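Look over this record as teaching material.
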Amino acid sequence: AESATGSAGAIKAIDKQSVHQICSGQVVLSLATAVKELVENSIDAGATNVYVKLKDNGTELVEVSDNGKGAAEQNFEGLTLKHHTSKLKDFSDFIHTFGFRGEALSSLCALSDLSVVTCHESTQIGARLVYDHDGRLTQRVPHPHQHGTTVTLQKLFFTLPVRHKEFQRNIKKEYPKIIFVLQSYCIISTGVRITCTNQMGQGKRTTVLCTSGSNSMRDNIGAVFGPKQLQSLIPFQQISPNESIKEDYGLGGVDVPKDLFR
């Protein structure tokens, strides 16, 4: 487009780094999205323990640790590359996992300082991996770690100054969204113990959320919202329609499936 003075600037392609940052900002929309992506990765890796550590409501640091399978050495480079994933062998894997575009870690690299400590289930010694904003592995050193992965994000959105300022200004609105997202995963993730702590400044670390790893969704609801909440819950029971109801709805002679809902 021509400027007000009438001189036309040449139309040029946006440089790759800016494109990566712009697109990443559209994948990771908020702190809650970042936490969601990391927690999903942990659960998809078969974790039974997921620990979310926040500092200053997540503005300074977000760390998600799990006891899942861990990352294999041949995947260290591809871990943070765009559209790379170890979860997809064939299309049906989209149904059996939380879904993915292979963009989360790549986008988080562009928006924060990202490091990973991981130890694959087949090895004894872990590795600490540091990535640059393009998702390239810049540092790799042996590091003791239990089987599983810890992803650490520092200063989310600081590579987008205007977005970062807005993010810090609105943290009081952002923080409850993280808790809401975590509550959802706490409820549906049976057999997974999820804990979230927050530390303000040099203050004490407080536990914000904690489930016990129960296999019952009812127990999870009690752990998240308190035992009082359980008193108002009504179990959902499926009862197949009897003959007269079938007739009313014109379903005579139709085989109605036993489990109508799942």
